[in-house]
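Re: that backbone. Tokens:
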């Protein structure tokens, strides 16, 4: 882990990409938290599934999808 951090900080382009990615992830989390009350109770998240209730997720489920982002 220490070697990974030193490699990221050694390369300026990788470090900038890491900082921008971290900033966008935090911005997304704050946006979801800020607008959480105005979201509908069910959200269509799984668009690759057939039409119907299988595509829907409760609003709280959107917070659990964030760690899976690249």
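Recovered sequence:
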């Amino acid at each position: 882990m220490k070697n990974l951090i030193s490699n990221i900080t050694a390369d300026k382009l990788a470090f900038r990409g890491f900082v921008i990615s971290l900033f966008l992830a935090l911005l997304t989390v704050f946006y979801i938290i800020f607008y959480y009350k105005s979201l509908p109770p069910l959200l269509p998240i799984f668009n690759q599934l057939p039409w119907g209730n299988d595509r829907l997720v409760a609003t709280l489920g959107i917070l659990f999808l964030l760690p899976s982002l690249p």
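Residues 12-34 form the longest helix (23 residues). The CA atoms of residues 27 and 38 lie 18 Å apart.
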